[in-house]
Design goal:
globular; single chain; Excalibur_Ca-bd_domain; little secondary structure; two-stranded antiparallel ribbon; 14% helix
């Protein structure tokens, strides 16, 4: 599963995503913009 953005992650009830989980992407083009291992935490 991949998500277009954090709104899609939240709509799916999957937020927050953690490094290693399906759908997690890292870096400026990913969902974890601060690269701390937690995506869509806010």
């Amino acid at each position: 599963m991949t998500y277009k953005n954090c709104d899609a992650v939240r709509a799916a009830g999957a937020a927050p995503l953690y490094r290693g989980q399906p759908g997690y992407t890292e870096g400026s083009r990913g969902l974890d913009r601060d690269s701390d291992g937690v995506a869509c935490e806010n």
